[in-house]
Design brief:
Protein name: Thiamine-phosphate synthase family protein
Distance between the termini: 66 Å
CATH topology of the largest domain: L-fuculose-1-phosphate Aldolase
Structural class: alpha+beta
Radius of gyration: 24 Å
Organism: Haloplanus litoreus
Shape: elongated
Number of domains: 2
CATH superfamily of the largest domain: Class II aldolase/adducin N-terminal domain
CATH architecture of the largest domain: 3-Layer(aba) Sandwich
Pfam family, one: HTH_3
Region (Disordered): 250-285
InterPro entries: Aldolase_II/adducin_N_sf, Cro/C1-type_HTH, Lambda_DNA-bd_dom_sf, ThiN
């Protein structure tokens, strides 16, 4: 009796690790860095490099496996993909190959009795909450890399700080929105990102995004910038719908949330509802991407928001049209 999981351990894992080790070495990783990225010993990396580990030609030749190695290797090399997401992506392919596919066929070869069964084994559902959340965090990382590489972005950061956010497909509150803890600040002309994206750490930009979505806007990403009439004019001239909204006080939240501090510093109430945003977006009904802005008030800093399909999409608009 042999379980399909044994084939994963004996054939798939050595093959995928060998392929990833080779991919990362080609990307300039040292043996130690490869070991850290894959969670294996340096001696294991050395064995993979010298062909001392038995691998499966059938698995290594599969286009899906090759694509997986490319995606994971690139993600680990750029930092866009965490080790958790890499694990999830590999697990997804394993489950696909187990479900009436390559590994299932290999299982039938070593367990001929299974052919008499005639049915497929739907072992696991490849879609998972972990995979979705890690994909969103990875998307925010890609957007942050674009912003950091944008000349003059630091000059676009408002006094309250910037944040780049992206929400889950079915986001209901700020806990479903990934952002930078502590916000992005201009430190001596350099945009400083203090830590890796997390969920539930932005109330200010997240609440604007959620309010726009509540009003029907098909957007999942947003970034806030300093307000400048010339900036609004440039974005409008570039073809982006621009929507002005009124700042409202006294809105109430239906639940306590984690705040990134921007609301208090901007003089606004700490809540997750933005009636002014929702009303303005509902009335304008703009296509994605679009621009939201408010011109400030007593104790309230004027702010510009760019909203779009995801975090990299809004970051590219900043790069292409909002040079500080």
């Amino acid at each position: 009796m042999k379980f399909v999981e044994e084939l994963v351990v004996e054939e798939f894992l050595p093959t995928i690790r060998s392929m990833l080790a080779a991919d990362l070495r080609e990307r300039g990783f040292t043996q130690r860095e490869v070991a850290e990225a894959l969670g294996i010993s340096q001696s294991a990396v050395s064995k993979y490099a010298h062909g001392e580990v038995t691998t499966s030609d059938r698995i290594s030749a599969d286009d899906r496996v090759r694509d997986l190695v490319e995606r994971v290797g690139s993600g680990l090399a750029t930092g866009d993909m965490s080790r958790v997401q890499a694990l999830v992506e590999i697990e997804v392919v394993i489950r696909q190959l187990e479900d009436g596919d390559l590994l299932a066929e290999r299982h039938r070869e070593v367990m001929p009795e299974l052919r008499e069964h005639g049915g497929d084994f739907d072992v696991h559902d490849p879609e998972s909450t972990v995979r979705t959340t890690e994909e969103v965090r990875s998307s925010v990382r890609r957007g942050l890399r674009i912003l950091r590489n944008t000349s003059g972005f630091a000059a676009l950061v408002p006094n309250v700080g910037s944040n780049l956010v992206e929400c889950l497909p079915d986001a209901a509150d700020v806990e479903d929105v990934a952002a930078v803890p502590g916000r992005i600040f201009d430190v001596r002309g350099t945009a400083t990102v203090p830590s890796d994206p997390e969920f539930g750490v932005s109330e200010h930009v997240a609440s604007v995004l959620l309010s726009a979505r509540d009003a029907g806007a098909p957007v999942r990403g947003a970034v806030n910038l300093r307000y400048d009439p010339a900036l609004i004019d440039d974005l409008r001239a570039a073809g982006y719908p621009t929507v002005e909204f009124a700042v409202e006080h006294g809105a109430t939240s239906s639940r306590p949330t984690v705040d990134d501090g921007a609301d208090r510093e901007a003089g606004e109430d700490d809540d997750t509802t933005r009636p002014g945003v929702a009303d303005a977006v509902r009335e304008a009904d703009p296509d994605s991407p679009f621009v939201l802005y408010q011109t400030g008030g007593f104790g309230i800093e004027p702010i510009t928001y760019i909203l779009g399909d995801d975090a990299p999409a809004v970051a590219r608009i900043v790069r292409d049209h909002c040079q500080g």
